[in-house]
Design goal:
Elements (H helix, E strand, L loop, with lengths): L11 H24 L6 H12 L5 H8 L3 H13 L3 E5 L7 E5 L1 H22 L4 H17 L6
Antiparallel strand pairs: 1-2
Helix pairs in contact: 1-5, 2-5, 3-4
């Protein structure tokens, strides 16, 4: 067997994986930069989007949705609460559980951020045809399934 054949960068799957990782990093960097004028970080945007889609979810449910530890959520929530973007209230059935909801200010900021985010998504996805876009999505879902994670 040829030693050069065994090198990972000679493998098309490896090269394509590196291209995917580079593209992801480029998009994340661009999104972080685009959110700066709104004084919003990507993790905060993720939280606001999930609270918009699932109002009243608990901190534990939010952490599970975002695939992060509850300690990560606990650190970010006070920042958003102090900015008046979300509210925390005790669950009526279990006082140990805190229910989260966006405030009107949180909804307003989220809509501005979604406009920015959607513009970036359109720019990125315009690099592919609708059929390619659908195939890409299908492949990513299969990767999530293979890695046994929740696509969201």
């Amino acid at each position: 067997m040829d030693d050069k054949q065994d090198l990972p960068w000679n493998n098309p799957r490896f090269r394509n994986w590196i291209a995917l990782v580079r593209a992801e990093k480029a998009v994340v960097t661009a999104l972080a930069r685009a959110l700066q004028p709104l004084d919003l970080k990507i993790a905060q945007l993720d939280m606001l989007m999930n609270l918009h889609r699932h109002p009243g979810m608990s901190q534990h449910e939010l952490a599970r949705k975002l695939l992060v530890g509850r300690s990560n959520i606990t650190m970010l929530l006070p920042q958003l609460e102090m900015r008046g973007l979300l509210s925390r209230e005790n669950d009526v059935k279990d006082k140990r559980v805190m229910r989260l909801a966006l405030t009107a200010e949180g909804e307003k900021l989220l809509m501005e951020a979604l406009h920015v985010y959607n513009g970036l998504i359109e720019k990125v996805m315009a690099q592919s045809t609708p059929a390619e876009c659908d195939r890409m999505g299908a492949v990513m879902l299969r990767i999530c399934e293979a890695m046994k994670t929740e696509p969201e």
